[in-house]
C-alpha cells in the first residue's frame, strides 16, 4: 500500500502544483492555497482537505493540559463555516478561521489515517463517496 501511495504522490507532483502562502493584513492572517494544473488536459480534484495540526492532545499533567493545549470549536456549513481555537484555560489570544469569497467548508474528518488530525474539506466529493461505500453518510 505504501508503494501505491508513493506512486500517486509522484504522479500528482507531475500534474498538480499546490502552493500555500500566508499574509498578514491588518489584524488578520490570510492563508491562500492555490492548485494549478501543470498538464494540458483537464484534471478532476476529487477531494481537497486542509489537515490542521494543533496542540489538542490532552495529558495527565493538569498544568500542561490547562495552559498548553487548545480546544477546537467548529461549524461546517458551506459559506457559514468557521473553526475557532482557544486555550483550555479560556484566556486570549484566540484564533478564528473562516473561508473567504467563494471558498467554503463542506465536510471534515479526523480519520485514523490522519492520526486524529482535524481536516476540513473545501471540496469533498471523493471523500464523501468513500464514506458512503464504507457505510458512512
Fold blueprint:
Layout: H1 2-15, E1 16-25, E2 28-37, E3 48-49, H2 62-68, E4 70-75, E5 82-87, E6 95-97, E7 107-109, E8 119-123, H3 125-133
Antiparallel strand pairs: 1-2, 3-8, 4-5, 5-6, 7-8
Tell me what you see in this structure.
- This protein has helices at 2-15, 62-68, 125-133, and strands spanning 16-25, 28-37, 48-49, 70-75, 82-87, 95-97, 107-109, 119-123.
- The chain is globular, with a radius of gyration of 17 Å.
- The protein has 2 domains: 1-43, no CATH class; 44-137, no CATH class.
- 22% of the residues lie in helices and 33% in strands.
- It is built from 3 helices and 8 strands.
- A 3-stranded antiparallel beta sheet has the order 3-8-7, with helices on one face.
- It is of the alpha+beta class.
What number is the mean pLDDT?
Answer: 83
| Portion in beta strands | 25-35%
> What is the H/E order?
HEEEHEEEEEH
Cα shape:
globular
Total of helices: 3
Taking strands numbered 1, 2, ... along the chain, how are they ordered across the largest sheet?
A: 3-8-7
Number of DSSP-assigned strands:
8
Helix content: 10-25%
Task: Compute the number of structural domains.
Answer: 2
Biggest sheet statistics: 3 strands, antiparallel
Radius of gyration: 17 Å
Terminal CA distance reads: 26 Å
- Poorly predicted runs are 1-7
Oligomer: single chain
Look at the helices and sheets and give the structural class: alpha+beta
Could you name the key traits of this structure?
137 residues, alpha+beta, 3-stranded antiparallel sheet, 8 strands
Amino acid at each position: 500500500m505504501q508503494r501505491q501511495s508513493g506512486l500517486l504522490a509522484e504522479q500528482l507532483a507531475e500534474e498538480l502544483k499546490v502552493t500555500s502562502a500566508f499574509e498578514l493584513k491588518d489584524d488578520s492572517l490570510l492563508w491562500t492555497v492555490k492548485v494549478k494544473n501543470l498538464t494540458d488536459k483537464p484534471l478532476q480534484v476529487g477531494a481537497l482537505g486542509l489537515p490542521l495540526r494543533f496542540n489538542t492532545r490532552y495529558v495527565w499533567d493538569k498544568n500542561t493540559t490547562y495552559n498548553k493545549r487548545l480546544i477546537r470549536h467548529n461549524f461546517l456549513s458551506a459559506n457559514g463555516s468557521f473553526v475557532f481555537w482557544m486555550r483550555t484555560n479560556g484566556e486570549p489570544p484566540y484564533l478564528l478561521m473562516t473561508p473567504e469569497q467563494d471558498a467554503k467548508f463542506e465536510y471534515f474528518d479526523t480519520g485514523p489515517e490522519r492520526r486524529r488530525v482535524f481536516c476540513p474539506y473545501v471540496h469533498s466529493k471523493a471523500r464523501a463517496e468513500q464514506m458512503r461505500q464504507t457505510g458512512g453518510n
